[in-house]
Amino acid sequence: MVTAFILMIVQRDKVNEVAKTLADMKGVSEVYSLAGKYDLLAVARVQENESLAELVTHHMLKVEGIIKSETLVAFRVYSKYDLERMFSIGT
After folding, report:
1. Residues 6+ apart with CB under 8 A from 42
2. Residue 15: which H helix or E strand, with range?
Protein backbone atom coordinates (compact mmCIF):
# COMPACT_ATOMS: atom_id res chain seq x y z
CA MET A 1 0.00 0.00 0.00
CA VAL A 2 1.33 3.43 -0.98
CA THR A 3 0.16 6.43 1.04
CA ALA A 4 0.72 9.97 -0.19
CA PHE A 5 -0.23 13.42 0.98
CA ILE A 6 -0.98 15.90 -1.77
CA LEU A 7 -0.83 19.54 -0.69
CA MET A 8 -2.58 22.01 -2.98
CA ILE A 9 -2.93 25.72 -3.54
CA VAL A 10 -6.37 26.27 -5.01
CA GLN A 11 -8.25 29.25 -6.45
CA ARG A 12 -10.11 30.75 -3.48
CA ASP A 13 -13.53 30.58 -5.10
CA LYS A 14 -13.06 26.89 -6.02
CA VAL A 15 -11.84 25.33 -2.77
CA ASN A 16 -15.12 23.58 -1.91
CA GLU A 17 -15.71 22.42 -5.48
CA VAL A 18 -12.17 21.05 -5.82
CA ALA A 19 -12.39 19.32 -2.43
CA LYS A 20 -15.62 17.55 -3.39
CA THR A 21 -14.21 16.50 -6.77
CA LEU A 22 -11.06 15.09 -5.16
CA ALA A 23 -13.02 13.26 -2.45
CA ASP A 24 -14.93 11.38 -5.16
CA MET A 25 -11.76 10.17 -6.91
CA LYS A 26 -10.73 6.54 -6.67
CA GLY A 27 -7.63 6.34 -4.48
CA VAL A 28 -8.38 9.49 -2.45
CA SER A 29 -9.42 8.50 1.06
CA GLU A 30 -9.72 11.95 2.65
CA VAL A 31 -9.55 15.63 1.77
CA TYR A 32 -8.87 18.32 4.36
CA SER A 33 -9.21 22.07 4.07
CA LEU A 34 -6.25 23.83 5.65
CA ALA A 35 -5.16 27.14 7.09
CA GLY A 36 -1.73 28.35 6.05
CA LYS A 37 0.32 28.11 2.88
CA TYR A 38 -1.83 25.36 1.34
CA ASP A 39 -5.60 25.26 0.90
CA LEU A 40 -6.25 21.51 0.64
CA LEU A 41 -4.62 18.25 1.62
CA ALA A 42 -5.68 15.04 -0.11
CA VAL A 43 -4.70 11.69 1.37
CA ALA A 44 -4.18 9.06 -1.31
CA ARG A 45 -4.00 5.36 -0.55
CA VAL A 46 -3.28 3.16 -3.55
CA GLN A 47 -1.78 -0.27 -4.20
CA GLU A 48 1.32 0.80 -6.13
CA ASN A 49 3.37 3.77 -7.28
CA GLU A 50 1.94 3.52 -10.80
CA SER A 51 -1.57 4.07 -9.41
CA LEU A 52 -0.35 7.13 -7.53
CA ALA A 53 1.29 8.50 -10.67
CA GLU A 54 -1.96 7.96 -12.58
CA LEU A 55 -4.02 9.67 -9.89
CA VAL A 56 -1.78 12.72 -9.54
CA THR A 57 -0.60 13.30 -13.11
CA HIS A 58 -3.74 12.32 -15.01
CA HIS A 59 -6.80 12.73 -12.82
CA MET A 60 -5.84 15.55 -10.45
CA LEU A 61 -4.15 17.45 -13.25
CA LYS A 62 -7.55 17.80 -14.93
CA VAL A 63 -9.25 19.35 -11.89
CA GLU A 64 -9.92 22.99 -12.64
CA GLY A 65 -8.91 25.35 -9.85
CA ILE A 66 -5.74 23.64 -8.61
CA ILE A 67 -2.95 26.19 -9.02
CA LYS A 68 -0.04 24.24 -7.52
CA SER A 69 0.48 20.92 -5.79
CA GLU A 70 3.18 19.09 -3.88
CA THR A 71 3.07 15.34 -3.34
CA LEU A 72 4.67 13.72 -0.30
CA VAL A 73 5.02 9.93 -0.26
CA ALA A 74 4.95 8.22 3.14
CA PHE A 75 7.52 5.53 3.90
CA ARG A 76 6.16 4.29 7.21
CA VAL A 77 3.29 5.06 9.58
CA TYR A 78 3.75 5.70 13.29
CA SER A 79 0.51 5.91 15.19
CA LYS A 80 -0.64 5.37 18.74
CA TYR A 81 -2.81 2.48 17.55
CA ASP A 82 0.10 0.72 15.83
CA LEU A 83 2.49 1.27 18.75
CA GLU A 84 -0.03 -0.09 21.29
CA ARG A 85 -0.63 -3.15 19.12
CA MET A 86 3.11 -3.76 18.72
CA PHE A 87 3.84 -3.54 22.49
CA SER A 88 0.87 -5.72 23.43
CA ILE A 89 2.25 -8.73 21.53
CA GLY A 90 3.03 -11.49 23.99
CA THR A 91 1.60 -9.76 27.05
Report:
1. 5, 6, 8, 22, 28, 30, 31, 32, 60
2. helix 15-23
Counting beta carbons within 10 angstroms of the beta carbon of residue 80, is it exposed (0 to 12), middle (13 to 18) or buried (19 or more)?
Answer: exposed
- Phi and psi (nearest 5°) for 39? -95, -35
pTM listed for this prediction: 0.84
- pLDDT (tens digit, 9 = 90+) per residue, 18-38? 999 999 999 999 999 999 999
DSSP bridge partners of 31: 42
Contact 32, 15 (CB under 8 A): no
**10 contact partners, CB below 8 Å, separation of at least 6:** 18, 39, 40, 65, 66, 67
Sign of the four-CA dihedral 62, 72, 31, 27: positive
In the chain, the DSSP E strands lie at 2-10, 28-33, 40-46, 66-73
User: Could you give the domains of the chain?
Assistant: 2-87 (3.30.70.920)
